[in-house]
Amino acid sequence: MTWGREAQVGKCGSHRCEENFCERKGKMNSSPKPISLTDMVDYQKDAIVSKTIVEKKTGTITLFSFDEGQGLSEHTAPFDAMVQVLEGTVEIRISGKPFHLKKGEMIIMPAGEPHALKAVEKFKMLLIMIRS
After folding, report:
1. Does 43-130 carry CATH code 2.60.120.10?
2. Whole-number Å distance between alpha carbons of 115 and 95
3. Where does CATH 2.60.120.10 sit in the chain?
4. Which of 9, 16, 69, 120 meets the CB 3.0–4.6 Å disulfide criterion with 89?
């Protein structure tokens, strides 16, 4: 992954960590510092890339990049989920109704309702799922 600068050896010791993110632990380091979400995940041709930023019993925050034309087939989730579009354009279908979102827009996908998404153009999003 390209982070725009060389990774530094973190407090974890033997492996390389980004200043704000530990690759091995898959979570933010304990010292809060500003970081660009869009720089944390790169696009890959014909692929979807994800990076879990926070994973707790009560919820997750996951960053995604989708190449143009890539998507997730219709599925349901047992919890509400919020999508925040960081770059590009996506079509999200919730219970069969299409929504077109672009950079800076968000939508909540209600628990138990079928939803799917497709990248109209390559895009990045932040998915926040609260489990309680």
Report:
1. yes
2. 6
3. 43-130
4. 120
Q: Which residue, among 50, 40, 34, 57, has the nearest Cα to 83 in the 3D structure?
A: 50
Q: Taking a C-beta distance cutoff of 8 angstroms, is the pair 78, 130 a contact? A: no
Encoded tokens for 44: 């890959």
pTM, entire model: 0.77
The DSSP code sequence of 55-88 is EETTEEEEEEEE-TT-EEEEE--SS-EEEEEEES
List b or e across 70-102, with b for residues whose CB sees 16 or more CB atoms inside 10 angstroms. bbeeeeebeebbebbbbbbbbebbbeeeeeebe
Helix (H, G, I), strand (E, B) or coil at 25: coil
Residue listed under structure tokens 């309680």: 132
pLDDT tens, residue by residue, 62-106: 999 999 999 999 999 999 999 999 999 999 999 999 999 999 999
CA dihedral sign, ordered 100, 102, 106, 112:
positive
CA 127 to chain centroid = 5
Radius of gyration of the chain (CA): 16
